[in-house]
Structures are given as structure tokens and as C-alpha cells.
Amino acid sequence: MVLKETGSIFENEKLFKKGGNITNIKIKQSVYEYYYYKELVIIKMLRIIIRELKKHAPFTALGALTGIAIMLIFYNIPSKFSYNIFYTLHPIHVLLSAFTTAAMYNLNTFYRGKKKLWMMVIVGYLGSVGIATLSDSLIPYLGEILLNLPNKGIHIGFIEKWWLVNPLAFTGIIIAYFRPTTKITHAGHVLLSTWASLFHIIMALGGSISWTIFIIVFLFLFLSVWLPCCTSDIVFPLLFVKRKK
Description:
By secondary structure, the chain is mostly helical.
């Protein structure tokens, strides 16, 4: 008998019902339980993602509105000034994201006796630098392309300002190792990401603005923060947590 490694538990169950000796039946039962547990974990993770996205949508929308309010005031500032503000907000965003992501991993794994600092560093770094780059730079840049803004460009912090962004990411991870908490920093993370994304777009405006730009920028601010930040802070670190069956 050959099990379908990618099949559902129901497909494999049909295979288990075929004849065999007691040893084979026990092996089949163990494999069946493995696939059943694997599908339960996936379903549970999807429920967590959906619940957290629903929970954070209102606050993320509020954050996007604050971005539009800031844009009304600062849309005409020089690109160099926007660049400096971006590289103030983005590194702080990375710091908070690294802290929150690593703390989530720490709280869910280390208290179970599995103290793997190297895993915490990997999860904290990828979950902060990788997703913050997506949120603050890549998605706003797509918005700039869509709007065909005159000064559009992409700014990758961990490369362009590697000496600033990367050390702050590791600092957040170290703090999370000794003082893990997730109660305060997620809200700050969302707002910082919103504003960093905003000033990435303002750099490209060139002083031109319209109501169409306001609407599209709002949508991109919401999307650039909603899914990436919830994924970074909550879902991403839990993917690496080993739980008992």
C-alpha cells in the first residue's frame, strides 16, 4: 500500500481500510493520525489568521486615516525631508517589529522548555526586516507605479541603510529574549508602519496631489499594514512553534 502524501485524511482513510496484518494496521493508524493532526494545525492557523485580520482591520483603517491627515499637511515637503522622515520611522518600525515577533515566539516556545536562541534570532529577523520591507517599501512602491508618480523609487532599508536597520533588528530580538511582551508594541508597530509607508509615497509625489491620489494612497496604506503587520507579529512566529499533539 502506498499512501498519498498530499491527499486528504479521507483519501488516506480509504487506503487504511484495505486488509493487512496487525503491524501494518498500527503503522497505518499512526500515519492516519499524523495527517489528521497536520490538517487540524492548518485549519487552526487559518482560523487564527482570519480572526486576527478581522480584529485589526478597524485599527488599521484608523491608522490609514491618520496617514491621510498627515499627507494633507506634508504632501508638498521636499523629497529629501520625506526621505529623512522615512529613515527615522522605518528603522524604529523594524525595532518594534523584531521585538514583537521575537517576543511572540519566546512566549510560546521558551516557556515550554525549548530554548533555541538561534531560532528566535531567525524568526525575529525575517519577521521584522523581511515583512517591514514589504510593508514600508515594496507595497508603497507598487502604489507609486500605479499612480505613475513623478519621483517614484524603491528604498530597501536593510540594504540602503544596513548599518542602521540591521543592528536595530537584532537589538529588538535581544530585548525580547530577556523581557518578552506583546501587549504594548503592536499598536505602535501598526502606526509606525503606516507612517513609514506614507513618507515613502510622499517622496514620490513631487508636490502634485488630487482626490484620486488620496483614495488610492488610503487603500495602499491599509493593505501595506493590515496583512503584513498581523502576519509578522502573530502568525509568522507561531509557524515555528512546535506544539504537543
